[in-house]
Amino acid sequence: MNDQTRLDAQQRLTSAAGHIRGIERMVADDAYCIDVIKQIQAVQAALSKVSTLLLDNHLRTCVTTAIQGDDADERERMLQEITSVFTVTGKK
Amino acid sequence: MNDQTRLDAQQRLTSAAGHIRGIERMVADDAYCIDVIKQIQAVQAALSKVSTLLLDNHLRTCVTTAIQGDDADERERMLQEITSVFTVTGKK
Amino acid sequence: MNDQTRLDAQQRLTSAAGHIRGIERMVADDAYCIDVIKQIQAVQAALSKVSTLLLDNHLRTCVTTAIQGDDADERERMLQEITSVFTVTGKK
Amino acid sequence: MNDQTRLDAQQRLTSAAGHIRGIERMVADDAYCIDVIKQIQAVQAALSKVSTLLLDNHLRTCVTTAIQGDDADERERMLQEITSVFTVTGKK
Question: Which Pfam families match (chains A, B, C, D) (predicted)?
Answer without folding.
Answer: Trns_repr_metal
